[in-house]
Amino acid sequence: MWEEFIACCKSKGTTATATLLEFIDLYLGDSQDKADAIGGNNLDERLDSKIKASVEKYLVDSYNSHSSPTNEMIKAICSRLDKLESEFLSEFNSNQTTEIDNLANLEQKVERMAARMTQLAEAIIKIQDYLNNQQKRGQKSYYNNSSFKAHTPRMQPLTEEGLAKRLGVSEESVRKERINLPPPLFVAWCKGKDRAGLGWEFNENTGLYQPVS
After folding, report:
1. Looking at the whole model, is its pTM more than 0.90?
2. What is the 3-state secondary structure (H, E, C) of 90-101?
3. Cα–Cα distance for residue pair 181/185, rounded to 1 Å
4. At a CB cut-off of 8 Å and minimum separation 6, what does 147 contact?
5. Quick one: DSSP state of residue 188?
6. Largest CB tally within 10 Å, which of 57, 66, 165, 189?
7. Contact call for residues 155 and 198 (beta carbons, < 8 A)
8. Do residues 169 and 193 lie in contact, with contact meaning Cβ atoms separated by under 8 Å?
9. Per-residue pLDDT tens for 121-177?
C-alpha cells in the first residue's frame, strides 16, 4: 500500500512526504483543541489510524474517480476478452452441434447407399438368371422348331437293296421280316438295326421303304 501511495503521489507531481506533511498540517489545524486534550501517545495512535484511512481513501478515489487512460484501456480489454470468450463458447457449441448433425447425416447416407447397393446386386443376379433361362429356352426352341428341322437332311425312300445295306442285313432278311411281321413290329425291327435308330415301313404304292420318325 505504501509503494502504491508513493507512486500515486509521483503521478500527481508531488511526493509522499509532502502529501503527509500537508495532511498533518491540516489535521493539526482542524483538531488542535482535541489534540491538546488527548495527550501524546493517543495522538500518535490517532494520527496513524487517520493516515491509514486517508491513504486508503485516497487510493480508492484515485482509481475510481480519476481513472487513468491505462485503467480505461484495461477495462476495455477485459470487456473485449469477455465478449470474445462468450462468442467463442457460443461458436464452439454451435460447431459441436453442427458436427454431430453432420455425422448423423453421413451415417444415414452410408446406410442408404449400402441398402441401395444390396438392391442393385439382387437385381443384377435376377437379371442374370433371367437371361440364362432365356438363353436355354432359345436353344431348346431352336433345336425343336420347324426351321431347324427344315435344315435336317430328309431321308429319302430306299429300295430293298438300299435298306438291307443300311441295316447291315441281306435283302432276303428284310423281305422275310416285312412279310412275317405286322407293320408296327417291322418298323421296330428296323429301328433296332438302323445305325441312326430310324424305323422303316414299306409303301406298297411305290414299292419303296420310307423312314418313320
Report:
1. no
2. HHHHHHHHHHHH
3. 6
4. none
5. H
6. 189
7. yes
8. yes
9. 777 877 877 777 776 666 665 555 554 444 445 788 999 999 999 999 999 999 999
